[in-house]
Amino acid sequence: MSSTYILGISAFYHDSAACLLRDGEIVAAAQEERFTRKKADASFPANAIDYCLKTAGIQASQLDYVGFYDKPLLKFERILETYLGVVPKGFRSFLMAGPLWVKEKLHMEKQLRKGLGYQGPILYSEHHESHAASAFFPSPFEEAAILTMDGVGEWATTAIGVGRGNDIQLTRELRWPDSLGLLYSAFTYFTGFKVNSGEYKVMGLAPYGEPKYVDVILDKLIDLREDGSFTMNQKYFNYLSGLTMTNGQFQHLFDGPAREPEAKLTQREMDLARSVQVVTEEIMMRMAKTAHRETGSENLVLAGGVALNCVGNGKLLREGPFKRIWIQPAAGDAGGALGVAQLIWHRHLKQPRTVQPGKDSMRGAYLGPEYAPDEIETYLKSIGASYRRMERAELLREVANSIASERVIGWLNGRMEFGPRSLGARSILGDPRSAAMQKQMNLKIKFRESFRPFAPSVLRDRVNDYFDMDCDSPYMLLVAPVKENRRIPMTDSEQQLWGIDKLNVPRSDIPAITHVDYSARVQTVSRDVNPDYYDLIKEFETQTGCAVLVNTSFNVRGEPIVCTPEDAYRCFMRTHIDTLVLGPYVLRKEDQPEWQETGDWRKEFQLD
Ligand SMILES: [Fe+2]
Predict the structure, then answer these.
(1) 333 alpha carbon to ligand 1 midpoint, in Å?
(2) 318 CA to centre of ligand 1 in angstroms
(3) Does an H or E element contain 136, and which?
(4) Which end of the chain is more exposed for a tag (fewer CB within 10 A), N or C?
């Protein structure tokens, strides 16, 4: 019997992606931005689809189903009603968005067929159903409560439901314009960061601030109910009618106008960040309690952009009503491509779902392209690079030794990650024991603000020796406290330091990954999921006694994470990365020929 192939697509909003299932199993998944090198590329994911089909060795005509992750007409209806409700105030942004909607959304099928040359059925699922499916179906649970939270899809902004066996059911939703994602984005905008990507920075800034605006947010901005649902007071927001998130009234509540992007950060932004983070955690907690009450489950699965708030997730795990939590690594809209494909397989085709207890079916999120040694070598030869091919054990020893000598490593190994985090396939690695490492890596490699600490990768079997957690966190989506006995208390004079200067004070014996509040965004690494990365950390532990590495995404600020050996070499040569590892090949910066730059790349990524 021939296999059933299902292609899932998410596109035209942000972060386009494609995912391919063969008889229900995930064969490949990738975001379009990695191929086009355009961050959060929202265009039709032609390259990602092409990659998925090639990986399975099939043509588009061999696909049995194509699924799209939301319902464009429903979404258009929401846009239209919103604009009609605020005409003529909203007319300007309607003119901006309208033609795009007509062109891209209403002609979706035509585009899919034209783009794919595919004549079979195209099915649509609702946006939050796609998120919910991506959260439950690949999870390690037979049954679970489902919570999805984001900015907005068609109408829903939050959904609560339950997953059992091979189906999911959503039982409650919060609807536009009341949205936790948009509330967080409003503060992202107001603190001078970019909406849809700067939310992480707000979360990283929060530990420097005091929650002094929490009461104002709860009194004026939102009416929060016991069950976690809330109403946003549209008097202060501008996303219904304008092109910005907040309006002039908003600034009266928060001591002045929005911070200009790139302007110096002040204590006010830190306090704002802390306040919106506290409110977000409270809303997440109340929603989780509602989901728990309604399902009686001990398991919770999460997806939607808000599920990338790993500080909130960590708190849910420690203080919430659930025993176990699993979070879809591609929690944002890219993951919708996976969700809709799995909905077609399980719901539409009524195929059973088998769960291996304790094991999800995401394969560590290593679902993207990989490059064979001869492909890598052909490329390296073509540019005259200086490289050595090494045996595995020797390579791991040398790389671990380099890290211990404070060299920074660019590491490309195996299949690229699906989702926004680097998990040891496209990562920049460093020594977490080095206090100088964090500043050095932020400024000279990432070219970004230095207030964010890096994230640690730790051996799964050693996680509890370093952090107050003892569960899997394979996707770096849980924040946990650094163990008490590893902490270094601040002296009185250090306590007085202002905001970001505090970060330069070592807070633990792994200072490069310890935030000012002693927290860390943890990735646990298991040998059965990624043996090369596990063995590298193990070798580092053998040499140094430390079972942790600094792991940050392999890119510079504003650039998508590298995909190919060529992307990796380019990033290596443009930055202060000292050693590049491409599969079995090791390259030292000092041995490389002079790098010829084409175009103004710093301008391209807005680094100046
Ligand atoms: Fe979404």
Answers:
(1) 5
(2) 26
(3) helix 127-136
(4) N
